[in-house]
Amino acid sequence: MDAASADHTHLWHPFTQQRGWVAEQPLVIERAAGTDLIDAQGRRYIDGVSSLWCNVHGHRHPRLDAAVRAQLDRVAHTTMLGLSHPPGIELAGRLVELAPAGLQRVFYSDSGSTAVEIALKMAFQLWQQHADAPARRRTRFIALREAYHGDTVGSVSLGGIDLFHSIYRPLLFDALRAEPGDAGDLERLLTAHGDEVAAVVVEPLVQGAAGMLVHPPGYLRSVRDLCDRHGALLIVDEVATGFGRTGRMFACEHEGVAPDFLCLAKGLTGGYLPLAATLTTERVYEGFLGEFEELRAFFHGHTYTGNPLACAAALATLDVFEEERTLEHVAELDAVLDEALESVAALPAVAEVRRRGLMCGIELAGFPLAWRMGHRVTLEARRRGAVVRPLGDVVILMPPLAIAACELRRLVDIVREAIIAATGEVALTAAA
Q1: CB within 8 A of 377, min separation 6: which ones?
Q2: CA-CA distance, 184 to 395, in Å (whole number)?
């Protein structure tokens, strides 16, 4: 059985209607180099979505490869339940140095979903262990409409995208919903429910899975101020926006915001291995201290918490940020992408282009759901040598930060040609 047939026979892919999947020839990626993916036939494709928004410095980067190999000569995995290890210790210190002021403690897990889940549980437990009875009434969370924070049950409870989340509502806790980018709406909710709210949870500046929904300038700063005024904690989910995607190491730096919890994953290891981190303050940490018999500890963990291989990759990723001046390169690419997207935004089939840094969403103009226009565009892009992925009919561009300017222009040109080809074909079919 060849690889494609075996895939169709045995695999179940994420976020995929398998009936459609098995009707198409799958793209089987066998190798990668730099910012290219290479299939089993040797064809190359620009990795236009950073292998789901996580690759930073490119594939097979010598520095990252060497770090993982060196760690393999020491130990591949050891638990952090009752033990510790040098890569985990060193990485925690490096993250604290990079993070906004006041974030002093690092709790590892294995994905963006679990990083957010940990922040939720910590915030909830902190208030429940408070000495004052009124504080223990803080059991609710505020999230934004169209939010996406992952696929574990707690993270889904915060989710506001009906396509992904509505069917699971009977399993979930009830979150309050604020209008994205509208500080007045958040203030209204906090005024009405402030003494019940444990924390406000936001994706800073850009809501990725909502189709790259960009918040107005000053909104994140207003959220921080409102949380302070009403005594709520602030959880910032930088799983997608962190590690240079918006032009700064962390998106909250753009508005000088220091959250109570910072959730990190994806680019943390440069896209090499699963690793997540939830950073929090000494105030939160101290709320869990007590005598053993008081049972105030945070009873949560993962088998691969702080996996040494992943921590080694993350340390190398941070080194490469400095050695290759990655953030300076992103600043140069920002202007390149802005100019390249002008011709895409002018297409009749494009309703809007939304972007912050190297996070870009191209919304197609009102095609019927059954036409799967976003998917058609990705197939056309693939034929032309690029891998991109849609969110419905929003085509996402989020290449590795290391992409060369000429390759970024070529990626945008491919997507433009793919939109023209896909929408032109459907227009002719519909007319016929």
Answers
A1: 364, 388, 390, 395, 415, 418, 419, 422, 423
A2: 31
Buried b (16+ CB within 10 A) or exposed e, 25-47: ebeeeeebebbbbebeeeebbbb
Residue 42 has pLDDT above 60, yes or no: yes
Q: Is 2 helix (H, G, I), strand (E, B) or coil?
A: coil
SS3 334: helix
The Cβ-side half-sphere exposure at 175, using a 13 Å CA radius, reads 33
Q: Write the pLDDT tens digit of every residue in 54-95.
A: 999 999 999 999 999 999 999 999 999 999 999 999 999 999
Q: 3-57+325-431 and 64-323 share one CATH topology?
A: no
> Which residue shows structure tokens 């429910």?
193
Phi and psi, residue 176, nearest 5° = -80, 145
Quick one: angle between helices 86-98 and 308-323, nearest 10?
A: 40
Q: Looking at domain 64-323, which CATH architecture does it have? A: 3-Layer(aba) Sandwich (3.40)
3-state secondary structure at position 377: helix
Distance CA 181, CA 202 (A): 10
Rounded (5°) CA angle 345-350-351? 100
pLDDT digits (tens, 9 = 90+) for 341-353: 999 999 999 999 9
Where do the domains of the chain lie? Answer: 3-57+325-431, 64-323
| Superfamily of 3-57+325-431 according to CATH | Aspartate Aminotransferase, domain 1 (3.90.1150.10)
350 with 362: CB under 8 angstroms?
Answer: yes
Q: CB pairs under 8 A, 24+ apart, for 30-34?
A: 32/59, 32/60, 33/58, 33/59, 33/60, 34/58, 34/59, 34/60, 34/402
